[in-house]
């Protein structure tokens, strides 16, 4: 990565617009002046004057911060600093059609890593109700068989429920954002690969087994994916 | 989460600007028309005409896509679809000062989950050279003791190196983005908590032990963090 940097850096400067510069300056300003959520920003015209740029450029930069959820407009108070939706813009760019192969593979591995690490949170927070729901999902899979569309839907439903059971909203949302990436990768597989440990087996472990048994079960369930990345 | 949605949604509509609408339309258009990286976008004026909005609004929306890395300007070709930097805008908003407590806790758990899941990739890709470097980092820690600033720096160096050893650039960058969050959380601790398994112990396992021994070692190393989230 370090070796590629000089070139990228040179190109980036050539392509930098005034809005890029103002956006960076504004973020630095908000940070160094210790703005807190709810604090009102200076007026557009004041920002333009002190930066020595046009109002249009300031508006463009503020529009970006608005998209990131860092600022919002309040009645009577104007622009204020907001609590950003940290995954919002990540969601915007997570389109498998425009992400390069290398990054897709990285994201695939990231998901496998999370999935193996999930046991600890699951065993802290799982409830009988959640397990019953998970079991329903796993059972319905057996009925519909292995047609590809159903298979992907079931994968999504089952693993999505597991993440939800961790009680971690951010992680749960993060994984649901990664789904298009995995849907995309699964469609590249010629035929369904069924792991040694099925979804129903995993439910059984969650009910009766230990955290470590669940982790080992998950590793076996994902075994064919791990083989792919070797 | 679902219960809160109606309110948020209502507020969001009230606060929607033309740039928000045009941004969404443009992203949908690029997606449904199956634009690929390198494909040229219609001219600003054409987009403005077909959407029936001013050029300023189109420019504002394009500026956002540009910030996300979804479009870039090429000499002679104008705006083209680009491969976005998927973590770029995530990085922009990851400031512990403006993230709410709930999300900070979620991110903390997300990192713990990754750390426990890391063993598989580590054992696929670790090299003798990497382990030697990791050992150097762990040893230097012993010398400087437990002063808080040093301690945080060492935590960062050691765990950062572990992520780098996975060969997964995205995950490695993701964890380095999360660091300000953990730096922030660690400063809230009154005194350093040393786990049963030290960094040097983890290095020893990486050298001589199995993947599962490493995972158990990591779990013990992180034990006091897991206790916190119970």
UniProtKB/TrEMBL annotation, chains A, B:
<dbReference type="InterPro" id="IPR008920">
    <property type="entry name" value="TF_FadR/GntR_C"/>
</dbReference>
<dbReference type="InterPro" id="IPR011711">
    <property type="entry name" value="GntR_C"/>
</dbReference>
<dbReference type="GO" id="GO:0003677">
    <property type="term" value="F:DNA binding"/>
</dbReference>
<dbReference type="Pfam" id="PF00392">
    <property type="entry name" value="GntR"/>
</dbReference>
<dbReference type="InterPro" id="IPR036388">
    <property type="entry name" value="WH-like_DNA-bd_sf"/>
</dbReference>
<dbReference type="InterPro" id="IPR000524">
    <property type="entry name" value="Tscrpt_reg_HTH_GntR"/>
</dbReference>
<keyword id="KW-0804">Transcription</keyword>
<dbReference type="Pfam" id="PF07729">
    <property type="entry name" value="FCD"/>
</dbReference>
<protein>
    <submittedName>
        <fullName>FadR family transcriptional regulator</fullName>
    </submittedName>
</protein>
<feature type="domain" description="HTH gntR-type">
    <location>
        <begin position="16"/>
        <end position="84"/>
    </location>
</feature>
<keyword id="KW-0238">DNA-binding</keyword>
<keyword id="KW-0805">Transcription regulation</keyword>
<dbReference type="InterPro" id="IPR036390">
    <property type="entry name" value="WH_DNA-bd_sf"/>
</dbReference>
<dbReference type="GO" id="GO:0003700">
    <property type="term" value="F:DNA-binding transcription factor activity"/>
</dbReference>
